[in-house]
Amino acid sequence: MSRVIAAALFLLMSGCVSLPPHNPAEAWIEVYSASYDSLMAETLDGKTWGPGSYYQVTPGAHTLGLSFQYPAGPRDAYPDSCSFSLAYDDFQAGKDYHLLAGWNFNGAWVHLLDEQGEKLASQTCNSPYGN
Hints:
It is a single chain. This protein has 131 residues and is mainly beta. The protein has one domain. 11% of the residues lie in helices and 50% in strands. The strands form 2 sheets. The protein has a 5-stranded mixed sheet, with no helix packed on it. A 4-stranded antiparallel sheet has the order 3-2-5-6, with no helix packed on it. The N and C termini lie far apart (54 Å). Residues 1-15 have low confidence and may be disordered.
């Protein structure tokens, strides 16, 4: 039994160490996604970005392309999706940023937050069920 627990802990921890080290000369932007939806990093400044869970960018202005899938209305079998193109002009070296998305009846939103949780930029996507 203890071997099973140890193996499970190892697998859980290995997911955490798969991210590259933070470069202090660049800004780190982590993409958060809840278990019932999916927010993925797709492009950086219009170019395909490989990893879906973070961005590491040079200081200055950048445009982050994101895709977001979230549960649809109660009668729909497939999730709704939105594409975001979120621009921010002042990424700073050595700083950590967070992208957080959510949804409600009116549609979806994404926020760029700084280390203190202050909203720096946001974008919305209207639901086909909203007003």
